[in-house]
Amino acid sequence: MKIFYGVQGTGNGHITRARVMAKELQQAGFDVSYQFSGRPAEKYFDMEIFNGYRVKEGLTFNTAKGQVSYLKTALQASPVQFYKDISTLDLSAYDLIISDFEPVTAWAARKQRRKVIGIGHQYAFGHNIPRKGSDPIANQVMKYFAPATTGVGLHWHHFGQPILPPIIETPEFPANIQSDKIVVYLPFEDPNYVLSQLSCFENFEFHVYSPEPVVSKFANIVSKPLSRAGFQKDLYDCAGIISNAGFELASEALQLGKKILVKPLHSQMEQISNAAALEQLGYGRTMYDIQPAVIEAWLHNHHAMHITYPNVAKIVVEWLQQGMVEMDQAFIDNVWESVQILPVAQ
């Protein structure tokens, strides 16, 4: 079976999920062509598993100082190029089309009257899940950014809805954790400001990853460039993460039993809703601005949850192999029955 797989390239969460899917698709013998959009071609890294992938401009959100600007997003969009990319993407040679919230693929499929499977966290918002910070623009963006004929939504909990657990790597629980080590990933914030706000916590060691890292002049802070291997190594033995409220990193942290503090992007309904879900489930804490008092309280609070999720990528690939029959309640319940939720012993 030949598959065309489009992946949203803004941020790294979609790409992280696609890496896990790519491994399972490859093992199952699928012939997959990958397309990414949402960032310049030179900004992608560690992409070896997506052999021969292509890049399109697509659509992305304008962010500055931790906030999404829908006006600037609209102004920087290139509708002529976007329409051209949609019109020139020929999907006729493919048996199956998948979009991880990637708009060029999704809209090209709709234009060619082809079915498209949407796999990702955003497709969970078609169901009754925790939602906060919603407004008419955000609702329309979520609905029409990358529409799918069949959505496979993902979340940390089912909330009584037909959605699946996260698609993530499922490594062994770390045997040794460095109790003072914190991984920080706030790519939409001013890195100099982030470092200055963390510098006063001298009893902790911060590993700060940024798209454009700045030199750290603080003994307790290591500033690092984006690297999948380096990030995973630090994530594995750290005590906790401070990040924006993206879905994939929090999912990995829960799988590894890390405590979580999120700072959602202002005016970004998905991230604000993610933060609300983490609070509701008791899986993490939230700050809406970078607040040293909140950070300090969180650093000295050892509450963390260890959630063992199944290999959802393999489950989805087997579902594709079996003809994509409707995921009924029995199917959904069977997947969630294997999820275990335990507090992390301190």
TrEMBL record:
Pfam family membership, one:
Glyco_trans_1_3
The protein's matches in NCBIfam families, at most eight in alphabetical order, are given as:
MJ1255
- What is this protein's record name? Glycosyltransferase
Which species is listed as the source?
Answer: Methylomonas paludis
